[in-house]
Design goal:
By secondary structure, this protein is mainly β. The protein is built from no helices and eleven strands. Helices cover about 0% and strands about 50% of the residues. Strand 4 and strand 5 form a beta hairpin.
Length: about 120
């Protein structure tokens, strides 16, 4: 089993920044992809960003492209999400996910509990 624990959420004013972290423990596996999703009240979970094992491959949702940056430190089994120029519509619970090679990130069984991000206008 893989355990994922997110941290770094909080309340920030529009235009501000936050950095989320997701630490993996347990049966960590090489070659995995890690990603971030978010879920706002009354809305479906939506993809935010994903990063491959080496860190050289990233992909973002159009809504966050140019504002958010995903990165990882494999020595620490940790993935990060730097969020800049935050908007009220970014308010959501942010969830970390880890996927085995060959498994679509949105179909993985490995999810964190989430961390709340609230952006005030």
């Amino acid at each position: 089993q893989v355990q994922l624990v997110e941290s770094g959420g909080g309340l920030v004013q529009a235009g501000g920044s936050l950095r989320l972290s997701c630490a993996a423990s347990g049966r960590t596996f090489s070659g995995n992809r890690m990603g971030w999703f978010r879920q706002a009240p009354g809305k479906e979970r939506e993809f935010v960003a994903v990063i491959n094992w080496s860190g050289g491959g990233t992909f973002y949702a159009d809504s966050v492209k140019g504002r958010f940056t995903i990165s990882r430190d494999n020595a620490k089994n940790t993935v990060y999400l730097q969020m800049n120029s935050l908007k009220p519509e970014d308010t959501a619970v942010y969830l970390c996910a880890a996927a085995l090679p060959g498994i679509p990130i949105e179909s993985t069984n490995y999810w964190g509990q989430g961390t709340q991000v609230t952006v005030s206008s």
